[in-house]
Write a structure and sequence with these properties.
CATH class: Mainly Alpha
Family: Belongs to the cytochrome P450 family.
Number of helices: 19
Function: May be involved in the metabolism of insect hormones and in the breakdown of synthetic insecticides.
Number of strands: 15
CATH superfamily: Cytochrome P450
CATH topology: Cytochrome p450
Strand order of the largest sheet: 4-5-6-11-8
Helix content: 40-55%
Radius of gyration: 26 Å
Strand content: 5-15%
Distance between the termini: 100 Å
Shape: globular
Cofactor: heme
Organism: Stomoxys calcitrans (Stable fly)
Largest sheet: 5 strands, mixed
Protein name: Cytochrome P450
């Protein structure tokens, strides 16, 4: 009888212990729980998602497109921030603009989220993925390379590359037809890759790796990025890189790194030759004159810093890899959706054309930063397109220590904070008719109708994108050249688009428009 009593007591204490443990830990996710500091129910602060197994089974069964839609449905259903537990980590999902602003301006929350770790084999820990003192020193080093005077030098490059792009578009017309079908997602990345290499790196791509090949290899990297974030086994490097997939990944990276190394060495040689030429002759020859006209670019800052001992060759490679892909991918996505939206809204397209004709001459002789700045409606169109289709649908931060958020929410060390830009941008809480394309909402007199914190396509706060002005300048220049020559008509409509999660916003099929020559 006494033995039965002991068994009952043991069972009661065991059940109590498990219940108490479950209050503090998500047992199936092997992680501490997000709690309130005063012990009040967490659901008064945020919505809690998932049962005893967290969100593991649900999310692990989804592909990239399904996962994108899953987060959209959650935002629509919960209408507030929500917590879930997934693959050994607590996750706080932010869909409130004010809370997003708090996170992005919090100096305790500068570390990028866990997902960025899977980009480390490719871009290592450059400006995009580093944190701490390394991130601060790199940002100080690189920020001056995007000032007004340097950006002015890039307009001529953007103009020439845009003229080349117009020539490419003309090749899609058949002689007997005034219509051409354009696959935006195939053509835009080539243009933007050329632009970033020539402006920020000072190198032509003609004698480097073919653009299409580079894009194909990066697409493989992105596919692997998603697979690794959704596979419990592939998360661990020591396992993954012993598999066939891991070894193929390393080969793909070698090709991409060879591309960036070629860029660095070409620029290094050009600058070295210029120095030698200057030392050996007081009278410049034609070649010297050519070199003297070279623009000061981001890569020059890195090479100068290398001489001063502020960065080594590996660090230069990190930043070149980072800026080549980030600087080309973001603007490509922005342009794809901007042109799609222009094709869908002829009245908006006409307003852009009229504004452009007022400020930019047909011979483009006055196409410079000053006149591009006058294209205010262009700005509205680009911003509205970025609102609906932000390049990064979400960004993430990681708590490097136990962190109290908003005074009452205790986030354990390692908590992932996902800020859902896509959902904030499309929230009826901040925008009237949020699904409708209305560039006028960004006119100065209407900006007061939505908070500044509800629009941040280039991130915001302490880690905001240093290339935002560069990207806007590049996109406006191409819009001018294309609208000068063509009328855009729709083929792909928004309800046909199926977005998916990747390194940036992706679509599962081609986005097409039709062009008609203006003249």
């Amino acid at each position: 009888m006494f033995l039965i009593f002991l068994v009952i007591v043991f069972i009661i204490y065991s059940v109590y212990g498990v219940i108490n443990l479950h209050r503090n830990y998500s047992l199936t996710s092997f992680t501490r729980r997000i709690k309130t500091t005063d012990g009040t129910p967490l659901d008064k602060e945020v919505f809690e998602v998932g049962g005893i197994f967290g969100s593991n089974f649900e999310l692990l069964s989804m592909d990239a497109e399904q996962k994108f839609e899953y987060f959209r449905q959650n935002a629509s259903a919960f209408k507030r921030n929500y917590v879930q537990y997934y693959l050994r980590t607590p996750v706080l999902n932010i869909i409130d603009a004010n809370d997003a602003e708090l996170v992005l301006n919090d100096p305790r929350l500068l570390s990028k989220g866990l997902g960025y770790k899977f980009l480390h084999p490719f871009i290592q820990t450059g400006l995009l993925t580093s944190d701490g003192e390394k991130w601060r020193s790199r940002r100080r080093l690189l920020l001056p390379t995007f000032n007004y005077n340097i950006l002015q030098q890039f307009v001529d490059i953007f103009k020439q590359e845009s003229l080349n792009f117009v020539e490419t578009l003309n090749t899609h017309f058949k002689s007997e037809d005034n219509n051409a079908v354009i696959l935006l997602n195939k053509l835009m990345p080539i243009l933007t890759l050329n632009n970033i290499c020539e402006t920020a790196m000072g190198v032509h791509l003609d004698d480097r790796l073919d653009c299409n090949e580079y894009r194909q290899h990066f697409a493989k990297i992105e596919k692997i990025f998603f697979e690794r974030t959704t596979n419990p086994i592939m998360i661990f490097d020591f396992i993954y890189f012993k598999t066939r997939a891991g070894k193929n990944y390393l080969k793909t990276m070698e090709t991409l790194h060879a591309f960036s190394s070629g860029i660095i060495e070409k620029r290094r040689k050009l600058l070295s030759d210029l120095e030698k030429s200057s030392e050996n002759s007081s009278i410049p020859n034609d070649e010297d004159m050519h070199y003297s006209k070279q623009r000061y670019v981001l890569l020059d800052s890195l090479l100068r810093a290398e001489k001063e001992g502020l960065i080594d060759h590996a660090g230069i490679c990190e930043e070149v890899d980072t800026f080549v892909i980030a600087g080309s991918d973001t603007t490509a996505i922005g342009l794809i959706f901007a042109f799609m939206n222009l094709s869908l809204h002829p009245e908006v397209q006409q307003k852009c054309y009229e504004e452009m004709q007022e400020h930019i001459s047909d011979d483009l002789s006055n196409l410079d930063m000053a006149n591009l700045a006058k294209l205010q409606y262009f700005n509205c169109v680009l911003k509205e397109s970025q609102r609906l289709y932000p390049t990064a649908p979400y960004i993430s931060r990681e708590c490097s220590e136990d962190t109290v958020f908003k005074g009452n929410i205790l986030l354990p060390k390692g908590t992932q904070i996902n800020i859902h830009i896509y959902d904030i941008h499309r929230s009826a809480k901040y925008y009237e008719e949020p699904e409708v394309f209305k560039p006028e909402r960004f006119l100065p007199e209407q900006r007061k109708n939505h908070p500044a914190s509800a629009f941040f396509p280039f991130s915001a706060g302490l880690r905001s994108c240093i290339g935002e002005k560069f990207a806007m300048l590049e996109m406006k220049t191409l819009m001018v050249l294309v609208l000068k020559n063509f009328i855009l008509e729709p083929i792909t409509y928004p309800d046909e688009i199926r977005c998916s999660i990747g390194v940036a916003l992706r679509c599962s099929h081609d986005i097409k428009i039709k062009l008609r020559r203006r003249y």
